[in-house]
Amino acid sequence: MIPASPVGRIVEKTASPVETFALYVALLGGVVLIGIAVLTLISVAGRALIGFGLAPLRGQFELVQAGTAFVVTAFMPWAQLKRAHASVAVFTDFLPARANAAIDFIGDALLFALAVLLAWRQFYGVLDKLAYGETSFLLRFPLWWAYGASMIGLLAWIVVGLWCSLNSGAILFSSRTDNKLYQPKR
Question: What is the pLDDT of residues 166-178, one digit of tens each?
Answer without folding.
Answer: 999 998 888 765 5
